[in-house]
Design brief:
By secondary structure, the chain is α/β, with parallel strands linked by helices. The protein folds into 3 domains: 6-100, Orthogonal Bundle (Fumarate Reductase Iron-sulfur Protein, Chain B, domain 2), CATH 1.10.1060.10; 109-255, Rossmann fold (3-Layer(aba) Sandwich), CATH 3.40.50; 271-384, 3-Layer(aba) Sandwich (Rossmann fold), CATH 3.40.50. 43% of the residues lie in helices and 9% in strands. The protein contains 18 helices and 10 strands. The protein is globular and about 65 Å long. It binds iron/sulfur cluster (2 copies). Residues 27-33, 49-50, 53, 81-83, 85, 87 line the site of one iron/sulfur cluster.
Length: 386
C-alpha cells in the first residue's frame, strides 16, 4: 500500500483558517455530516466528511487524495450539522491548498485553463458565445432601455441541450413584455465552477472584474439561467447587483399579472414532479418560485418526490463533478430518477442546466421511456407557444 503523504505546518493551518473564515473550528466531530452525505447512498465506503473537517481543524493536507474532489458542494451535510459548519467552504479551502501544492484532480486543470483562455469552462471559442441566439436578434443591454440583464451563462450559451432552456426563457420574457438585454460575446463567465473546484483566488479576480463591468454597464438587476451563477452573484460577488434566478423572476411576473400562461395547444402530461436544484433550495432557500411557475401552467398537476426542498437529493453535477467521471452505479441522479418514477409523473422538471444533464443521462442510460426531463422554463414556454 502506498503511504499517504501528509503535510502539516503552521502556514497551512493559518492559510486554511483565512480561506474558510475558520469554519471548521466549531466542529465537534459528531459525524452527522458523513451519515447524511449522499455518497453513502451509492458507495460502499462513503466520503468521510467528518475527517476532512478534522484535517481542516489541524491544518493537515493530504496530497494525491481523490476523495477530496468527490464533494458536490450540495450542502446536505450543512443542513444537518448541529454546529452550523460551512462544510462546502471547508472543502473549497482544502481544494485550494491542493491547487497550490500542484495536486489538483487530474481532470480539472483543463477547466481552469479553458476559463482563462476562452471565458468559459467548456473549451469553446469565445466568438461562438452568442451562436445559440443567432436568429433571436437580442439587444445588447442598455440601462436607458432595459429593465434587466439576461445573464445566459456559459452552459446555456454552449451546451446544445441547455440552449433550449435559454430559448424558453427568452420567449417567456418576451411574452411578458419585459425590456431586457444581454451582454452578447462580452458576457463574462460567472466563475461559479472555478469557485466550486476551490480556486478561490482566481474566482475573486473574476468576480471583481465582472462586478466592475456590470457597474460600468449600468447593470443593477440580473436574471440568470442557472442557479450556480445566481448563487455566485448573490452570495460571493458583493452587493452591487441584485440577481434573480429566472424562476424567481417569472414567478414575480406571474404574480404581478404581467405573464399569463394559457393552456398549451398540445396537452401536457398531467403529472409533473419537480427536482429542487441544491443551489436554489438548500443554498438559497428558494423552494416556492419554480413551483409557482409550474402551478400557473394549465394542465400541470404537481406531484412531489420523497426528498424535496431542503432535503432534495443532489443530481451529482455540482462542485466540479460535471467535469469528472462518476462510475455507473455511483450516480445520485439514477436514484433521483427512481424517485421521480415512484410518483407516477410523466415529466421530471427541474431548473438547472447541470441537473438537466445528469437526470437526462440517467433516464437514457437506464432506457427509461415513460419519463421525460424538462426545464421549468421549457414547460412554461409550451404554454405560450400558440
Ligand atoms: S456534522 Fe458538523 S459538527 Fe458534526 S462532524 Fe460534521 S461538521 Fe462536525
Ligand atoms: S456538500 Fe454534499 S457531497 Fe459535499 S460533503 Fe456535504 S453532503 Fe457530501
Amino acid at each position: 500500500m502506498p503511504q499517504t503523504k501528509y503535510i502539516i505546518d503552521d502556514n497551512t493551518w493559518e492559510e486554511l483558517i483565512e480561506l474558510t473564515n475558520g469554519a471548521a473550528a466549531v466542529c465537534f466531530q459528531c459525524g452527522v455530516c458523513t451519515a447524511v452525505c449522499p455518497w453513502g447512498l451509492v458507495k460502499e465506503e462513503t466520503l468521510s466528511v467528518r475527517s476532512y473537517m478534522r484535517a481542516a481543524q489541524l491544518g493537515l493536507q493530504k496530497n494525491g487524495n481523490e476523495n477530496l474532489w468527490l464533494c458536490t458542494t450540495c450542502a446536505q451535510c450543512e443542513a444537518y450539522c448541529p454546529r452550523g459548519v460551512d462544510i462546502a467552504d471547508v472543502f473549497r479551502g482544502l481544494r485550494y491548498l491542493a491547487w497550490k501544492n500542484n495536486h489538483p484532480h487530474e481532470g480539472l486543470p483543463s477547466l481552469l485553463w479553458s476559463v482563462y483562455w476562452n471565458n468559459n469552462p467548456w473549451e469553446q471559442p469565445p466568438s461562438q458565445r452568442t451562436n445559440w441566439a443567432k436568429n433571436l436578434d437580442l439587444p445588447i443591454f442598455d440601462p436607458e432601455e432595459h429593465e434587466i440583464l439576461y445573464y445566459v451563462g456559459c452552459t446555456a450559451s454552449y451546451d446544445t441541450r441547455a440552449q433550449k432552456v435559454a430559448h424558453a426563457v427568452v420567449s417567456l420574457l418576451n411574452a411578458a413584455g419585459v425590456p431586457f438585454g444581454t451582454l452578447g460575446e462580452d458576457e463574462p463567465c460567472s466563475g461559479e465552477e472555478v469557485l466550486s473546484v476551490g480556486h478561490k483566488h482566481y474566482f475573486r479576480e473574476m468576480a471583481d472584474n465582472a462586478t466592475k463591468a456590470f457597474k460600468e454597464g449600468g447593470i443593477t438587476q440580473i436574471v440568470t439561467t442557472d442557479p450556480h451563477s445566481y448563487d455566485a452573484f448573490k452570495n460571493h460577488y458583493g452587493n452591487a447587483i441584485q440577481p434573480f434566478h429566472y424562476t424567481q423572476y417569472l414567478a414575480n411576473l406571474i404574480e404581478e399579472g404581467r405573464l399569463t400562461l394559457p393552456a398549451p395547444r398540445s396537452p401536457l402530461p398531467a403529472k409533473v414532479t419537480f427536482h429542487d436544484p441544491c443551489y436554489l433550495s438548500r443554498h438559497n432557500d428558494e423552494i416556492e418560485a419554480p413551483r409557482k411557475v409550474l402551478n400557473a401552467i394549465p394542465g400541470v398537476e404537481l406531484v412531489e418526490m420523497p426528498n424535496i426542498a431542503e432535503d432534495t437529493l443532489c443530481c451529482g453535477g455540482g462542485g466540479g463533478r460535471m467535469w469528472l467521471e462518476t462510475e455507473p452505479g455511483e450516480r445520485f441522479s439514477d436514484l433521483r430518477v427512481e424517485e421521480a418514477l415512484s410518483t407516477g409523473a410523466q415529466l421530471l422538471a427541474t431548473s438547472c442546466p447541470y441537473c438537466i444533464a445528469c437526470l437526462e443521462d440517467s433516464v437514457k442510460a437506464q432506457g427509461i421511456t415513460e419519463l421525460v426531463v424538462m426545464d421549468v422554463a421549457e414547460i412554461a414556454a409550451l404554454a405560450i407557444k400558440q
